Amino acid sequence: MPLPTSGIAVPGQPLGTTAEFLPGTGIHIRKDGQLSANIVGRIHISPTTTPPTLSLLSSPQDTTNSATIVNPATLLPQVGSTVLCRVTRTNPRQANVSIFALDVVPPKGTVVVVDGAVAAATSTSIPTGDTFPGVIRVQDVRATEKDKVRIASSFKPGDIVRAAVISLGDQSNYYLSTGRNELGVVVARTDSGDLLYPKSWKEMICSRTGIVEERKVAKPI
Amino acid sequence: MADRRRVVGPTDGTTPPVFSPSPSSTSLPPSKRVCRDRGPQDLRQIFLKTSLTPPAVGSSFLELPSPPTYSNSSTLKLTCSVFGPRALPHSAPFFPQARLSCELKFAPFASPLKRRGYVRDHTERDLSVQLATALQRSILLEKYPKSGIDVFVTVLDCEGEAGAVTGVSSFHAGGGKGGGGWGGGGVDVGLLGVLAGAITCASAAIADAGIECLDLVSGGVSALVRKPGGGGDDDAMGQEMEDELVVVQDPSPEEHAPGDIVAACAVGYMAAREELTEVWMRGVVETSIDTEDKTEDNLDRMMDGAIMAAAQARRVLNEGVAERLLFAMNMAKHEMEIT
C-alpha cells in the first residue's frame, strides 16, 4: 500500500523496519520486523535516540517538544497508576470507590496533550470517559500497623481519595491502595457539608465548627 | 381528566389513511429495472464520514449513491457508533482482554417493502455475530484489559430483500449441483452488501474512537452472475455454463433480474496484512479442488473478486479515517497564520 500524503498514518500502514526506527506510541511490530501504525496519527520522528524513534501523534497541533497524547475516552486504570476516586460505601473490611480520574505522568521534558490542547507539563489528572469500580481493602489503607486500621476512621462515603492501583482485581473491582504518604483523602466534608482541612496524617478539621474527624489523610502538596 | 392508562381515540372518528400499493422491486418490468452501467470490476462510489454522532467515542456514516427515482429501488445507508473501552457490567467475569460486542440493527424504516419490528430478529443476530468475527482480529484487545468495547451499527436504508423480514429465508439457490438447470431462484445479495458495508463502517468508527488496532478491515462483495442472454438454455451442460458466469464486484440486487445471481460472497479483508477475517458465501457454486488452473475455478474467481472489492473500499476507508485529523491540522495551521 502506498504511503499517504501529508504525514498521516492510518492503522495497518507499514512505516519502516525495526532497523530504521525504534517503535514509539501508536506503533506495533509485525512478525516480519515491519513497524505498523495502530491509530490514526501524525508521523513524528524523534532523532534523540539511535535509531530515531517513530511515533504517531493523534493531536493536530505541532508541539515543539515531544508530547504525551492522552485520549480520555480510551484511558483505562493500569497497575501502578495513581487515580482519583470517590468513596461510594464502606464496611469494616473495605471501602468501595468509583474511579473517575487518572493521573498521567509525562516522561521528563514532555507535555501532556488532551484533546489536542496542551494540558500540563507535569503530572496531571485526566477525567476518564466512564467511571470504574474499585475497592480499598482494610489491609491496603496504610503501610504500617495494618492490624490497627479501621475503615470507619479512614474513609467516609463521599470522600475524594487519591490512591494507587495495585491490581486489576476481580471481575468488577480494581484493587487500590493508599499505603503511601501522598495517598489518602484529599477532599472531605463534614455531615453539615463544610470542607475539612488536613490537621495531621490521620485527622482533618473543619474551619467553621472546629470539628475534628478521623481520615487517612493524603500529604498536602 | 383524560384516561392515562389507555390510548383514547378521537371522539369524532377519523378517515383511515389509504396508501398506494407498495412497489415490489421484483415485480418491476424489465425496462423499469436499474441497469448496471459500470463494468463488472467497478464499484459504486462510497461516501464515508467519521465523527458525526457526538455522544459516541467514535462514529461513522456510510452511504452508497442513490438510484434513479423512477426505479423505486433503494440504497445502502449505515451509521456506526463505538463506545468504550468502558467498565464491564458487574456480572461479567474477569477477562484480561477487552470484550468486543457488536450489534447490528435494522431501523424500522430500513426496508422499502416492509416495516421491521424493534425486537432483534435472527437476521440481525446473525449479522451481528459475523460483524464481531470480522472485527475481533483487527483490534488490539489486550491493550484494554477488563473492559468492554461496544459497536452499534444501525442500518438506515438497505437494498433488495435484505430489509424484508424474510431475510435469510429468501435464499433460493436454484438448480442442482450436477450442472445445468440454474433456473429458478437466485441469491439476494442485499444482506451481503449490508455486512460488507457494516464492516467498513465499523472499522472506520473504531479508528475514529482512537482504539488501537492492527489494521483496518474493509468489506467487499462479489457475485457470480449469469451473463445476460447467455444463461437459461435448457440443454446447456455444466462445462458450457461455467463460461457464461461472470464475476461482478459490488453487485446491487436492484441491478440484476431475480435468479440471475447464482452465488455471492462477502469478505472482511485486512489489506495491509493481506488477511481475511470473515468470509460469507451464499448460493451454489461449482468448485474443483484438483484443478491446476485456479483462474478457471468459479469459487476462487468469486473470492478474488470480493477481495478486490474490499481492497478498493479500503482506499475510501483510508481517506475517511484520516480526514478529521487532516482537517484539524489544517485548522491549526490556519490559526497559526492568523495570530
TrEMBL record, chain A:
Alphabetical UniProt keywords: Cytoplasm, Exosome
Main location: nucleus
Domain Exosome complex component N-terminal: 8-45
Pfam families for the chain: ECR1_N, EXOSC1
Alphabetized InterPro entries for the sequence: Csl4, EXOSC1_C, Exosome_cplx_N_dom, NA-bd_OB-fold
GO MF terms, alphabetically ordered: RNA binding
GO terms (BP aspect): RNA processing
SUPFAM superfamilies: Nucleic acid-binding proteins (SSF50249), Ribosomal L27 protein-like (SSF110324)
Compartment(s) of residence: Nucleus, Nucleolus
Lineage: Eukaryota, Fungi, Dikarya, Ascomycota, Pezizomycotina
GO cellular component: cytoplasm; nuclear exosome (RNase complex); nucleolus
Protein name: Uncharacterized protein
Gene3D superfamilies in the cross-refs: 2.40.50.100, Nucleic acid-binding proteins (2.40.50.140)
Domain Exosome complex component CSL4 C-terminal intervals: 76-168
Listed CDD domains: S1_CSL4 (cd05791)
TrEMBL record, chain B:
Region spans: Disordered: 1-37
Domain Exoribonuclease phosphorolytic per the UniProt entry, residue ranges: 43-212
Subcellular location: Cytoplasm; Nucleus
A GO cellular-component term linked to this record: nuclear exosome (RNase complex)
Gene Ontology biological process terms, A to Z: nuclear mRNA surveillance; poly(A)-dependent snoRNA 3'-end processing; rRNA catabolic process; rRNA processing; U4 snRNA 3'-end processing
SUPFAM superfamilies according to UniProt: Ribosomal protein S5 domain 2-like
Pfam families, A to Z: RNase_PH
Keywords from the UniProt entry: Cytoplasm, Exosome, Nucleus, RNA-binding, rRNA processing
GO MF, one example: RNA binding
InterPro entries, alphabetized: ExoRNase_PH_dom1 (IPR001247), PNPase/RNase_PH_dom_sf (IPR027408), Ribosomal_Su5_D2-typ_SF (IPR020568), RNase_PH (IPR050080)
Family: Belongs to the RNase PH family.
Protein name: Exoribonuclease phosphorolytic domain-containing protein
